[in-house]
Amino acid sequence: MLGEYRIEGRRAAEIAASVERAVGEGGLEPGQLLPPMRELAVRLGVNANTVAAAYRTLRERGVIETSGRRGSRVRPKPATTARELMRVDAPPGVRDVSLGNPDPKLLPAIADAFAAAAAQSDERPVLYGEGAVDPELERHARAAFDADGVPRGPLAVTSGSLDAIERVLAAHLKPGDGVALEDPGWGSLLDLVPALGLRAIPVGVDDEGPLPGDVERALASGARAAIVTDRAQNPTGAAVTAPRARALREVFAAHQDVLLIEDDHGHGIVDLPLHPLAGATRSWALIRSTAKAYGPDLRLAVLTGDPVTVDRLQGRQRLGPGWVSRLLQRAVAQLWASDAVDARVVAASYGRRRDALIAALAERGVSAYGRSGMNVWVPVPDETGAVARLLHAGWAVAPGARFRLGTPPAVRITVAALDDEEIAVVADAVASATGPALVRRYD
């Protein structure tokens, strides 16, 4: 069952560490079956409860999964092997279009905003006991949420979208709970869910967002939460349309106890309207980060949600970091007040390059997708081969394995790094490396 590897340890922590170490080093492979708890307890000479505690720890860390009588297995993609490691390092002379970064030329200058925020802090420093949310930041965030039809709720600030999602999940779920996740979807989120001890339940995606039938099946199978990307979905570029939003709201309306999380990280770089699902269930949160429009190093996101969810998030936040730096909040408020980013201009720039690449690939018989945002998703027959051949041709693309649970092979190309004259060149390389992709849907 375990080949040459022997699990060791006398205490639960030692047994769990032995298994986790083997997974990280490759001694235990993804999908490999672990011994039944009683059998391992006899082999190690310990109580069965000790092994049960070790397996519970491993489940909570996202290393293994348990399926009743079918036993415990190493997860297909354990949390100990982060998807960020599934990348191609671009050697000198190779163009890197794999990282998902925004175009630096489209990011605003931030020096004046931080200088103004610093001057404000010099005049009136923020001290212990003050509110966690800067009033000016809240005013701008609230106005933007209101303009997009997001239901009124309390507001919180976190250190980016992933921090917000983790805190919202932790506010409601316990290890073993299921979470409906877009497939393909954001690689960091696909890592986070098992790392929290939660079960990922895949939901298919097309150009208009999550497929309602898949969402219904996930919720009916016991998913306690669902995470939806409103616009600029990573990696496919999907954006939830008005008809799709209505269909999804109908699905969620029948599952009021489900936690609904919306990630609107495309705010500021997308000119498609938001069609929020917020309020379709009792527990909900809608999150917006500054990373794509203002720069990844501005580790700040604002969220609104139902009072219980936001109160739980802020209560736990107070026991950890306390609050997100008010200096940073004031700087972001300055950027928002000055209209430092014109979403129409940014969206048009990404859209021009995205549409040009999709059209160039279509001319060469290759299907590709990207309705919004800065990425193009290209289904391929052989992912590993396509990535290797493109690297040989001078292009580093992101392997689709970073973003997939059960969907077929693909690669992701970030257009933010492309100049207009490079579109035809990369399209030629992709067509040569992949051949025609025959799928219309991503699953």
How would you describe this structure to a colleague?
By secondary structure, the chain is of the alpha/beta class. Helix 1 packs across helix 3, helix 2 crosses helix 3 and helix 14 (383-392) crosses helix 15 (423-434). The strands form four sheets. An eight-stranded mixed beta sheet has the order 4-11-10-9-8-5-6-7, with helices on both faces. It has a three-stranded antiparallel beta sheet with strand order 12-15-14, covered by helices on one side. It has helices spanning 12-25, 37-44, 48-60, 111-123, 135-147, 161-172, 187-195, 212-220, 242-253, 291-294, 307-318, 326-337, 343-363, 383-392, 423-434, and strands at residues 64-66, 72-74, 95-96, 155-158, 178-183, 199-206, 209-210, 223-229, 259-263, 283-289, 301-305, 375-379, 395-396, 398-399, 410-414. The relative contact order is 0.14. It is globular. Helix content is 39%, strand content 15%. The two termini are 32 Å apart.
Mean pLDDT: 91
**Low-pLDDT segments, ≥5 res:** 437-441
In angstroms, what separates the terminal alpha carbons?
A: 32 Å
What share of the residues lie within helices? 25-40%
Q: Strand order, biggest sheet?
A: 4-11-10-9-8-5-6-7
Question: Largest sheet, described in full?
Answer: 8 strands, mixed
What are the secondary-structure elements, in order, as H or E?
HHHEEEHHEHEHEEHEHEEHEHHHEHEEEH
Beta content: 5-15%
Shape designation: globular
Radius of gyration: 23 Å
The overall strand count is 15
List the total number of helices: 15
Backbone structural class: alpha/beta
